[in-house]
């Protein structure tokens, strides 16, 4: 099968010419990895390595996805409303985006394409602002430079939820020959493409600035900011300028460089993303470090505390955001009736406890902000509950839902305001976090990702989850498992009692609740060749929580090695 696919690509008359020399230079292992399967168009779209092959992101696999999406759009009469298209700084992102517009035009579908790179949240905003049928975002988020990806949005600016994504997937999978698709549209069809830019920017900035709770706060803080060579550079700096904050950009990381030349990693979940920002912060005695991923939907946070910089986890920064937002809404008499916050099944318990303190209920979703966006849309329609906040443990949050995805420019503005507000009280954001631990218990949250690339890696990930289901642990590291949740089999086990797990789309996730109030979850990544392990460990102190975390991580390593 590999040789057959490889030969078809190598000799196909429609193969984009830049791919032929790459194919000819492939060794056996490279051929196998590029052709052993077809890159999956799943509920999160596509993400993968750039290059020729059925298991790669390239002009042909992008066209196959877009043609399938076009068939779905036309079947649902969405062509006149049109599709908004955005893209990030990665290799081929702009080319893919405008090729998508051409292919949609060939299918008589209107599109609105950004003139240059823009954040993912602004694409989400543009879909609703322009009353589009949906959206396409070309991005690989925080992945390394070798990657790119393709995400689809519905008319609410939300990534396609599974029931909609499955309809598109069927259309994509029905296309047998991706190499036979071209994007050659007529001059008349070209008129269906509209290039957009500053007008949409302006409306997005206005909405971001509207989230301020204390716009007159004394802005006596210094913020070091890095867009990690990505799309956050202009929007965040513009919003800070208009709001009156002093922003010190990490100049070396402001250029839209697809090779991420001046950062060890563009992922704010990894320590390397902060190296240069920390240097800038120390030189300028900055109060706050904010680091965005390349498509500006995630934001990492560093805080000056007792003369040292402390990098917060996404769970910690999310909990601080909740505390600030809820306390100010309550203080100003602006807390809505029936307030609700959303987070995921792998997000720390701390945020939920903070929200509960202010009378805000929490609803859990599966990992993926599309599920939070779906809930936002539901309550906007029914008015049963009113949105206050939504976040994931992976540095993604949403303050106001004029966007239906994670929004780092919003988060950057809100964290700056919180930092300035608490500084007036003689506190920093770590002090605020410590006060939350005093009130609600001390937690250490962490994520360990086991990278398992290629065909063998994919099999190993499936094997890990299968083995955990076959021999479900009754204890982990000597601590009793008091409850387990299986989101694929949709069951809850507590001792000998088995009940149905409802309210979630089936997903390959396992979660174990321990007797000491901690929990551990396991899931394959939907966007990378990784198996992820999430730890929310409760301790009597920070030291105790940390020691227990190390212990439980080792216990899980031992468990999956069996």
From TrEMBL:
<keyword id="KW-0479">Metal-binding</keyword>
<dbReference type="Pfam" id="PF02878">
    <property type="entry name" value="PGM_PMM_I"/>
</dbReference>
<feature type="domain" description="Alpha-D-phosphohexomutase alpha/beta/alpha">
    <location>
        <begin position="204"/>
        <end position="301"/>
    </location>
</feature>
<dbReference type="InterPro" id="IPR005845">
    <property type="entry name" value="A-D-PHexomutase_a/b/a-II"/>
</dbReference>
<feature type="domain" description="Alpha-D-phosphohexomutase C-terminal">
    <location>
        <begin position="493"/>
        <end position="535"/>
    </location>
</feature>
<feature type="domain" description="Alpha-D-phosphohexomutase alpha/beta/alpha">
    <location>
        <begin position="324"/>
        <end position="439"/>
    </location>
</feature>
<dbReference type="InterPro" id="IPR036900">
    <property type="entry name" value="A-D-PHexomutase_C_sf"/>
</dbReference>
<dbReference type="Pfam" id="PF00408">
    <property type="entry name" value="PGM_PMM_IV"/>
</dbReference>
<dbReference type="Pfam" id="PF02880">
    <property type="entry name" value="PGM_PMM_III"/>
</dbReference>
<dbReference type="Pfam" id="PF02879">
    <property type="entry name" value="PGM_PMM_II"/>
</dbReference>
<keyword id="KW-0460">Magnesium</keyword>
<comment type="pathway">
    <text>Glycolipid metabolism; diglucosyl-diacylglycerol biosynthesis.</text>
</comment>
<protein>
    <recommendedName>
        <fullName>Phosphoglucomutase</fullName>
        <ecNumber>5.4.2.2</ecNumber>
    </recommendedName>
</protein>
<dbReference type="InterPro" id="IPR016066">
    <property type="entry name" value="A-D-PHexomutase_CS"/>
</dbReference>
<keyword id="KW-0597">Phosphoprotein</keyword>
<dbReference type="InterPro" id="IPR016055">
    <property type="entry name" value="A-D-PHexomutase_a/b/a-I/II/III"/>
</dbReference>
<comment type="similarity">
    <text>Belongs to the phosphohexose mutase family.</text>
</comment>
<dbReference type="InterPro" id="IPR005844">
    <property type="entry name" value="A-D-PHexomutase_a/b/a-I"/>
</dbReference>
<keyword id="KW-0413">Isomerase</keyword>
<comment type="pathway">
    <text>Lipid metabolism.</text>
</comment>
<feature type="domain" description="Alpha-D-phosphohexomutase alpha/beta/alpha">
    <location>
        <begin position="39"/>
        <end position="176"/>
    </location>
</feature>
<dbReference type="InterPro" id="IPR005843">
    <property type="entry name" value="A-D-PHexomutase_C"/>
</dbReference>
<dbReference type="InterPro" id="IPR005841">
    <property type="entry name" value="Alpha-D-phosphohexomutase_SF"/>
</dbReference>
<dbReference type="InterPro" id="IPR005846">
    <property type="entry name" value="A-D-PHexomutase_a/b/a-III"/>
</dbReference>
């Amino acid at each position: 099968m590999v040789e057959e696919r490889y030969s078809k690509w190598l000799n196909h008359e429609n193969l984009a010419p830049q791919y032929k020399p790459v194919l000819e230079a492939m060794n056996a292992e490279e051929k196998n990895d590029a052709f052993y399967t077809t890159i999956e168009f799943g509920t999160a779209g596509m993400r993968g390595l750039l290059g020729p092959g059925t298991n790669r992101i390239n002009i042909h696999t992008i066209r196959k996805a877009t043609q399938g999406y076009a068939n779905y759009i036309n079947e649902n009469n969405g062509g006149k409303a049109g599709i908004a298209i955005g893209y990030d700084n990665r290799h081929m992102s702009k080319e893919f985006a405008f090729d998508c517009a051409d292919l949609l035009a060939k299918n008589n579908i209107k599109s609105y394409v950004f003139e240059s790179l823009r954040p993912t949240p602004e694409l989400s905003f543009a879909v609703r602002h322009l009353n589009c049928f949906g959206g396409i975002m070309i991005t690989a988020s925080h992945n390394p430079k070798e990657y790119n990806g393709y995400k689809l949005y519905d008319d609410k600016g939300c990534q396609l939820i599974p029931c909609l994504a499955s309809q598109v997937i069927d259309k994509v999978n029905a296309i047998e020959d991706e190499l036979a698709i071209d994007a050659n549209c007529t001059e008349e069809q070209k008129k269906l493409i509209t290039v957009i830019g500053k007008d949409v920017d302006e409306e997005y900035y206005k909405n971001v600035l509207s989230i301020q709770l204390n716009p007159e706060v004394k802005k006596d803080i210094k913020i070091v900011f890095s867009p990690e060579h990505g799309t956050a550079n202009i929007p965040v700096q513009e919003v800070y300028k208009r709001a009156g904050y002093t922003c010190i950009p990490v100049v070396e990381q402001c250029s839209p460089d697809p090779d991420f030349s001046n950062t060890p990693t563009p992922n704010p979940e990894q320590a390397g993303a902060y190296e240069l920002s920390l240097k800038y912060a120390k030189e300028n005695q900055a109060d706050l470090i904010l680091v965005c991923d390349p498509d500006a939907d995630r934001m990492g946070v560093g805080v000056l505390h007792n003369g040292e910089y402390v990098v917060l986890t996404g769970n910690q920064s999310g909990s601080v955001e909740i505390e600030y937002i809820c306390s100010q809404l309550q203080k100003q008499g602006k807390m809505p009736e029936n307030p609700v916050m959303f987070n995921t099944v792998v997000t720390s318990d701390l945020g939920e406890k903070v929200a509960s303190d202010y009378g805000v209920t929490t609803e859990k979703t599966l990992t993926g902000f599309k599920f939070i966006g779906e809930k936002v849309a539901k309550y906007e329609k029914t008015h049963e509950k009113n949105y206050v906040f939504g976040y994931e443990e992976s540095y993604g949050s949403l303050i106001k839902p004029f966007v239906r995805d994670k929004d780092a420019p919003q988060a950057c503005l809100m964290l700056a305001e919180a930092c300035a507000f608490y500084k007036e009280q003689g506190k920093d954001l770590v002090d605020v976090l410590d006060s939350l631990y005093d009130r609600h218990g001390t937690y250490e949250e962490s994520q360990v990702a086991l990278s398992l690339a290629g065909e063998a890696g994919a099999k190993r990930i499936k094997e890990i989850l299968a083995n955990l289901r076959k021999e479900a642990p009754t204890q982990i590291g000597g601590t009793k498992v008091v409850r387990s949740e299986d989101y694929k089999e949709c069951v809850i086990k507590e001792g000998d009692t088995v009940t149905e797990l409802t309210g979630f789309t089936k997903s390959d996730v396992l979660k174990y609740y321990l007797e000491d109030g901690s929990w551990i979850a396991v899931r394959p990544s939907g966007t990378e060749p990784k198996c992820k392990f999430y730890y929310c460990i409760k301790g009597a102190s920070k030291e105790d929580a940390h020691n227990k975390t190390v212990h439980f991580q080792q216990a899980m390593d031992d468990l999956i090695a069996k």
